[in-house]
Amino acid sequence: MKKICAAILAMLLVLGVFTACSGAKDEVNPEILGVKDAAAVEQGKEYDALAGVTATDDKDGDLTAKIVITSTPALEFVNGKTTPTKQGTYELVYSVKDKAGNEGNAYTTLTVTRSISEETSYKKYQFGNTDTSDVDDFGMELIKSGTGDATLALTDGVMRLDVKNSGAAVGDVKLMRQEFKPVAGTEYDVIFTMKSSQNIMFNMLANHNTKDGDTAAWAPIGSSAWNVAMGSKYQEYKLTFTVPEGENENVQLIFELGKHSMNDVSNPDSYVVDILYVKVVERVGEEYPESVFKTDFTAENPGMSMSNTALGSVAFANGKAVATITGYGEAGWTNKLEQDTTVNIVKGKKYRLTLKMTAKNAQSGEFCIEDKVTEYQARALYDNINLAAGEEFVYTKDFFAEKDVENTSMKFYVGGASAGVTSNEITVTEWEISELVGDKSEDKALYRFIPYSKASEWDCFNGRESDIGSGMGTMYEKDGSMFYRVDELSALDYGNKIFVNKITLEKDALYKIRFTIKANKAGKTWFILNQLDTSKFEPTVSEVCNLTTEAQTFEFTTDREFPLALDFELVWSFGQGYNTEGDYLIEISNVEILKLT
């Protein structure tokens, strides 16, 4: 019996050994959660390094109580708390071990700032006392005839024509520049960006005075147009003309905005016309397009395709391509129509893009000329395009290439679906890139009607004021506040922004920027304090603020002192990425910079 028991005991011992040996070895490190990459504390103030921090292990469970914190340079921690007495940067290492000896780590950089004993006002911006003496009204004047009655003034950041009585004829209310002195033989574009409070019709004329001294001489030239429609959204209205050599070099710019009547439809008795910008483009010399690539839709392989993420396909027949979109995905931008080319785009050269497309349903998107693989990293052109339902979209864009592109691809990034639409069909009849050659050059001048002189601290920037594409807006002051109105949202975050041109911050101090802001609807702004005259974009303060219809006060403090006095800009950006639509009015007040010493 003893032998049997001994045998059983031996077997149990062997099984125990084998069971122990067959157990999986614990090689999983514990995990530390809640540690921020960076933190800051004022010298002499307590810092709780364990606030919101936990540690856990797959075998041992909660190990938060076993976290050990070390610092370089050294700091003393008691229950995860420390009180730094010296300014500087400290690298903190969080460590924890489980029973098997596996170790988990996390890291943060703690910046200890100087203790603040005094907070004084360094710069406070006042609104309502700006110098408007050199705001250029582009020489426009109001001319009234018959029963026409109106006023013309620079107000709310625009040139505003308030038509109180449109009269009995279209010429009873006119805006006119009596003298525009062109250089003979030079081509001009004079572009007015305008809108009306109500739908109206008007005439726009470039009148060439062919008789010296006779202001009544009537000889419209160039792209003078009659029966032009204007609505409640800003649009560009362009007069293009060239005065021949040897003729009287004066052109009158005339906008007849009175009681226009056509086909039993007349302008209302009263309305308001706002002029946002006037842009003058002078072109001297000659240039002509030389095609460098054009899609051959009759080829066996035209090189046009839908991206592999697309919900749809493209087919070729009868000298055209038909892209069929069967869906848009949850987030949009799923579909991309792209064309491989054989052209190398050279940075700085001038090109022309020509597109002809028709969409079954309204379709917006982005068109780019860029590297097939690296995309935006080597992009020569970017622009927003909008195709109306059932109408041929004819697009011509002259541009200077922003970058060299070797593996060149033309790409139509198809945006989301229009309202009530789940599919679409886009017919492409022409995609072409031409190089513009010759000796033509351009000079441009922009006239805005914001109430600031050229030496003002404040300014705004909107994409259409340059050549970067979309974005319209203006700024003005009222009742002690500054207002910025976004009339068209830019596709770029910086394509709608207001800013302080320059503020010099002195050395050996910290600074707090404080401002109060609200909007007519919920949105966002990206606020930055950015050092000027540097090769890198590394904002000293960079914060995104959520805006509401209620006024909120925001405060942001610099995290370092400057070794010498430096120049900065204050910027509030409102473009796409932060907001989704225009007609956005922002009110800013109580803008102040405080010096902390």
From TrEMBL:
Keywords: Signal. Transmembrane segments: none annotated. Residues 1-19 form the signal peptide. InterPro entries: Cry22Aa_Ig-like, Galactose-bd-like_sf, Ig-like_fold. Residues 38-108 form the Pesticidal crystal protein Cry22Aa Ig-like domain. It comes from the Bacteria. Gene3D superfamilies: Galactose-binding domain-like (2.60.120.260), Immunoglobulins (2.60.40.10). This is Pesticidal crystal protein Cry22Aa Ig-like domain-containing protein.
